[in-house]
């Protein structure tokens, strides 16, 4: 089973590119972030036409996550919204069961500028995420928590550590929160199979970042022990960043045995 993630940066604006990717790579599950669509205007019928059924947690204009499942049945939704803060109105989390695997699609807050309330929100969101992920570990569920983490884990995951040193994505607090997840027992699948780094998943639209290969890795797939044992392969669909009207992210994926 191939489980993929794609921060699409506007599902309606980039629908042709997204349909193209689904048709060419045919993931069994596709998790989307930054759909930037309300629940009412999400183009679910367009995905049904190409063999996918969707569940989504939308928000007009920004944020928003979705899980697409190949076939006639949608994923079985388990949880919508990250628990732990009743005042959090951002649509950044959706959790579902697909073929015996718990699939968690996340869009973690960016956190810039630093310091400030947005960075505080990011760190608090990561604490809440760790609480939920600890529950999944305790239940021994085969699970993947996949999506845009907005964290550059190590210097090997960025074209220039110096250039990003003041960014929220690379702050010691952000990295510490990420590695607390790893130390709890989760496996960073991309890092496991590509330990030397250099696997960028994001290139900014500004300053010719794509053309100069000034990228970094912020899209991750963390596997629970029960699923990490079934990991076959991982990868990044880099070529899609170079296409017309592309997202600034590229898809990442994992393959696990059934």
TrEMBL record:
Keywords: Hydrolase, Magnesium, Manganese, Metal-binding. Residues 4-249 form the Endonuclease/exonuclease/phosphatase domain. The record marks 219 as: Important for catalytic activity. The record marks 150 as: Transition state stabilizer. InterPro entries: AP_endonuc_1 (IPR004808), Endo/exonu/phosph_ase_sf (IPR036691), Endo/exonuclease/phosphatase (IPR005135), ExoIII-like (IPR037493). One of its GO terms (biological process) is DNA repair. Pfam families: Exo_endo_phos. Its cofactor is Mg(2+); Mn(2+). Probably binds two magnesium or manganese ions per subunit. The active site is at residues 107, 148, 249. Mg(2+) binds at residues 7, 34, 148, 150, 248-249. One of its GO terms (molecular function) is double-stranded DNA 3'-5' DNA exonuclease activity. Belongs to the DNA repair enzymes AP/ExoA family. This is Exodeoxyribonuclease III. It comes from Croceicoccus pelagius.
